[in-house]
Write a structure and sequence with these properties.
34% of the residues lie in helices and 19% in strands. The protein contains 17 helices and 17 strands. The strands form three sheets. Strands 1, 8, 9, 10, 11, 12, 13, 14, 15, 16 and 17 form an eleven-stranded mixed sheet that branches. Strands 4-5-7-6 form a four-stranded antiparallel sheet. A two-stranded antiparallel ribbon has the order 2-3. The chain is globular, with a radius of gyration of 25 Å.
Length: 579
């Protein structure tokens, strides 16, 4: 109740501030005038500037969303996880292991492909792009992972390139989304420092310092749509909001629910909204004594009313998340729902785990790490209130993102709150939860591994996992650390889960993969290394000159580029005449 009052009060304050600033902006425009954009230019105000336009180096969302417009890969991946051919005309398996799983793939390029400068896109460009991305000298953040997957990349002729894999990899088709660069640029350390030339829908006109990137459409333009784009980074939320109200931008992205409520309806601004896949979750350190007991982790999950949090924190613009993948993704189990809040059941689990309340009514004290953004801090405070109802006292600590990730890698945490913007490929489950991807010492082998679901033969894989764990433990005893991944921040280690994730990654049969991933998601629901919270909607604030447009579930900017655009009006007159 008190939180709701504070939310309404903050909204009234923000609304008043927005209206006042909008009027001030109008007066400034009257006195100073403004630069007029052409009618066929779509201006997007985004919260963060890209760090690079090089698809081999980009890992942040801002960079990825721009390079996808400029570069194209052999494939593309839809928000539902479905893989589609892009530059490739076909993908053909050409070598197999003893189980009949592919060990090599030949990609054939579509005929007539051209880079933006007119050069043909050829197999040598594909091979050069991949070799450079795997070369540690380039400094790609994914170099190690790609090198562990791909043994060699060999052009066979102008249109065919062969990928030899170290082991069968069912996810390889989605790895082929890597944007292809010309062979002349393969040795460049960063394409943002030179003219970025790709084979995507848009070419770069001006990238500058990446705070304002100007693009032009390469192919035919739909009637009335933008021929060019300007993507401007405006870090201040109020600045992005006002840029739409004042006509300086056509769409603003990354606005909070409070800002969206305050701006909607002012001077014709409206919302474009669609269900999103961005996943927010609470991670738990399964190796920390405070939350090592799965019963404690399940109790924390049962204490959370996800629907109420979505309503209060996101203004209803989201959906409770049963798992990493929302309904509609091909690996989301249709029978797996987020647990309903049950405080009594949560308390019973804490009782069973031996956590009784002290004189202050506290059963457990928990440290929660969050990034320094205001939305994340509000979310953490709301979770703290929910967990207090079952006697869990939460201390929230904000850390700069780099520092926070370093603490997670070192295992110096009990709980953390983060999000995953694009959970597309189901192998993300393996990256986050397979025991081989935890950077710390190998865990003790469980006494009784769980039984796999019917139809899945886990014994050979479990035996191999056990042998790997024993080997790693022996190496640790000798002071020789075995190279491991770093995605498993929660430290969960479960032989059955490892088996299911290995099947999903290795076996090409789609039905078998789905069965394995469904079982893995159910197993994660029992182990609870993370508490799935919600999938947030994609929302944009839209200027009235922009016609109907629907955001993409994964936030990619291509969703907006074909919207019809009305001619730009006199912004000063619009502001002064608006009620």
């Amino acid at each position: 109740m008190h939180a709701s009052r504070r939310l309404r009060g903050a909204l009234r304050t923000l609304t008043a501030r927005v209206v006042a600033l909008a009027l001030l902006t109008a007066l400034l425009l009257v006195g100073c005038g403004r630069r007029e954009w052409p009618d066929d230019l779509l201006v997007l105000a985004v919260p963060t500037a890209a760090r690079t336009l090089d698809p081999r180096l980009a890992v942040d969302a801002a960079s990825t969303r721009i390079w996808r417009l400029v570069f194209a890969g052999l494939t593309s991946v839809a928000p539902t996880g479905e893989v589609h051919l892009a530059l490739a005309e076909s993908l053909t398996a050409t070598a197999w292991d003893s189980d009949g799983e592919p060990l090599a793939v030949i990609a054939t390029l579509r005929p007539g492909l051209r880079f933006h400068d007119g050069r043909p896109v050829e197999a040598e460009d594909v091979a050069c792009t991949w070799r450079s991305a795997m070369d540690p000298r380039l400094g790609s953040p994914v170099a190690g992972e790609l090198a562990r997957r791909v043994r060699a990349v060999t052009p066979l002729d102008a249109r065919r390139v062969r990928f030899d894999l170290h082991a069968p990899l069912a996810t390889f088709a989605s790895d082929l989304i890597l944007g292809i660069v010309p062979r002349s640029a393969c040795s460049q350390p960063n394409l943002a420092l030179i003219e970025p030339i790709g084979a995507g829908e848009f070419a770069v006109v001006d990238a500058g310092d990446l705070a304002a990137v100007r693009l032009r459409r390469v192919g035919p333009t739909p009637a009335g749509a933008a021929r060019s784009l300007l993507i401007r980074a405006v870090s201040d939320e109020t600045g992005r909001l006002l840029s739409v109200l004042a006509g300086g931008a056509d769409l603003a992205l990354g606005l909070s629910p409070l800002a969206l409520q305050a701006a909607t309806g002012h001077r014709g601004a409206r919302l474009a909204r669609a269900p999103g896949i961005a996943w927010t979750y609470l991670g738990l350190n399964t190796r920390d004594p405070a939350v090592a007991d799965p019963r404690v982790r399940r109790a924390l999950s049962l204490a959370v009313d996800r629907a109420a949090l979505v309503h209060a924190l996101l203004d209803g613009r989201g959906r409770p998340a049963p798992s990493m993948f929302p309904s509609g993704h091909w690996v989301a189990p249709p029978d797996f729902l987020p647990p309903a809040q049950d405080v009594a059941a949560a308390a019973a689990l804490l009782d069973a785990a031996g956590l009784s309340a002290d004189a202050a009514g506290v059963r457990l004290r928990l440290r929660l790490l969050v990034p320094p953004s205001r939305p994340r801090r509000r979310e953490a405070d709301a979770l703290a209130v929910a967990l207090r109802a079952i006697g869990v006292e939460v201390t929230v600590r904000s850390l700069e993102l780099g520092t926070l990730l370093a603490e997670l890698r070192a295992g110096r945490f009990q709980a953390f709150l983060l999000g995953l913007p694009e959970p597309l490929e189901p192998d993300y489950l393996g990256w986050m939860f397979h025991s081989a991807n935890h950077p710390g010492a190998p865990p003790r082998w469980p006494e009784a591994p769980a039984t796999p679901p019917t139809g899945l033969d886990c014994q050979p894989i479990v035996d191999a996992v056990r042998a790997a764990w024993l080997h790693d433990a022996a190496m640790e005893g000798l002071g020789l650390a075995t190279p491991r991944g770093a995605g498993n921040r929660t430290g969960v280690a479960d032989p059955l889960l490892d088996c299911l994730l290995a099947i999903g990654r290795r076996r090409a049969d789609r039905t078998l993969r789905a069965h394995a991933y469904h079982a893995a998601i159910h197993r994660l629901g029992e182990l609870v290394p993370v508490i799935s919270l919600w999938h947030e909607d994609q929302v944009a604030l839209v200027h009235p000159r922009v016609g109907p447009t629907t955001p993409a579930a994964d936030g990619r900017l291509s969703a907006y580029v074909d919207a019809p655009l009305a001619p730009r009006s006199d912004v000063t007159a619009t502001l002064l005449e608006a009620p």
